[in-house]
Amino acid sequence: MLKYLISILFGIVEGITEWLPISSTGHMILLNQFISLEKLTSPQFYSMYEVVIQLGAILAVVVIFWKQIWPFRNDSKETGYKRYVNMDIIDLWLKILLACVPAAIIGILFDDWIDAHLYNYWVVAIALIVFGVGFIIIENKNKDLSPKIHSLKTLNGKTALLIGVFQVIAAVFPGTSRSGATILGGLMLGVSRTVAAEFTFFLAIPVMFGASLLKIAKFGLAFTSTEIMVLLVGCIVAFVTSMIVIKFLMGYIKKHDFKVFGWYRIVLGLIVLIYGIVTTL
Questions:
Q1: 36-53 burial code (b ≥16 CB/10 A, e <16)
Q2: Domain boundary assignment for the chain
Q3: pLDDT per residue over 213-222, tens digit each?
């Protein structure tokens, strides 16, 4: 029962931090230090769990934005239903896949090395602080500027690819925040907050599915019944929490900037840094 309760907590944290630009991986690493699911299962299972639980969060994006990401349509006419393909959505998916290429290459080549060398307090703390400062600087710089890109349709392939390059930073350094890196990159490239957030959500779909499949393949299919239930509980809770958080964030950014998340990252990064120093003394 304790495993399931902890998985519920992890699902809540994942659902909140995956979409707010405050680093889900960083929070999961820290949470596991205080309430360790890894010790109740195994290091191999937990390494897979902390990635695959993101599938629950991804499903929330699919449900909320279904009409914006599903290109196949049935158009009702007097003579019956006419099937057609929305080419604007196909174009969007081409941009999403293009933006995925840099992170996919890095993930496939260096996934094990990154896990072994960069998943620690120091990297998380520095990434939290650096990108927190980045959000504040960029938002102050853009305060009186008008975004150049106001819709997903006007987001060109070059800009999509550059946003994908920012995603590589998050793939390498835990604590950066995948959503934080891509949103910040979008803002720097003249993309509006709403478009940057939506593109980030959509970009997460292939990225997280790919990362999850990679982790499951490395773990194998030798799940125990308890492990399956622990993973399902985490995914379901992450899905429900994500539904709430995504809707909140899309409403929030219509009236506010991202600076509050920048300050949160800086404070949390300093706490992590102090904790890391104290525990090593």
A1: ebeeebeeebbbbbbbbb
A2: 2-280
A3: 888 888 888 8
